[in-house]
Design a protein that fits this description.
Blueprint (H helix, E strand, L loop, with lengths): L4 E4 L20 E5 L10 E5 L3 H10 L4 E4 L5 H10 L27 H8 L4 E4 L5 H12 L4 E4 L9 H13 L18
Parallel strand pairs: 1-4, 1-5, 5-6
Antiparallel strand pairs: 2-3
Bound molecules: magnesium ion.
Length: about 190
């Protein structure tokens, strides 16, 4: 079995929800970015923790996981978020763009149906701030079918902490899989 994918959310994980004044935590640095389809004179303000890049690189270099963005930023995560954190241009899950007004239109995370197909029977460690109890049931069900599935859920107002990365490494190390060759953990085209 190949190493698990490490699916990485952005909003609520790398970009915490803003406080009442619209700012991020003191640990985070403000950036103005221009996502695809937006004009340069109308950038989006985001807050990123510069420490997250080296922490994530430490995880990636172990070869214990295959990192892939899984976020409504889609390709912009690869082209905008990765370089701001000093990460290589990691591949991304090309999520659909459903017309929804809640992130849980069916009681579970809107990304999940697409991710479920995308994963096939691959093992996964998925970090996202927005899972529901139905997502945790889905993870438990996959795991019972030899598709190890670990969900890690940061507080969206705090975001990613070092302890989450320690948990990722700990859980990945316990999965019954061999580490990937070094070249397999670097950037490749969008995974299928
Ligand atoms: Mg999120």
């Amino acid at each position: 079995m190949r190493p698990p994918y490490l699916l990485l959310d952005v909003d609520g994980v790398l970009i915490p929800f803003p406080d009442a004044e619209g700012a991020g935590p003191a640990t985070h640095t403000r950036h103005d970015v221009v996502p695809i389809g937006r004009s340069a004179d109308n950038p989006v303000t985001i807050w990123l923790n510069p420490a997250h890049g080296p922490l994530l690189m430490h995880v990636i270099r172990t070869g214990l996981v295959i990192p892939v963005w899984c976020t409504s930023w889609r390709q912009d995560a690869t082209t905008l978020i990765s370089p701001l954190l000093g990460l290589p241009p990691l591949p991304y899950v090309d999520l659909p763009r459903p017309q929804i007004t809640t992130s849980h239109p069916n009681g579970y995370l809107w990304k999940r149906d697409h991710v479920d197909v995308w994963l096939g029977d691959s093992p996964v460690i998925w970090i996202d701030d927005d899972f529901t109890s139905l997502d945790h049931e889905w993870a438990a069900e996959r795991t019972t079918h030899d598709q190890p599935t670990v969900l890690i859920q940061p507080d969206p107002y705090v975001g990613l902490l070092a302890e989450h990365l320690v948990e990722i490494l700990g859980r990945a190390a316990l999965l019954p899989i061999a580490p990937a060759p070094a070249s397999d953990s670097s950037c490749e085209a969008e995974a299928a």
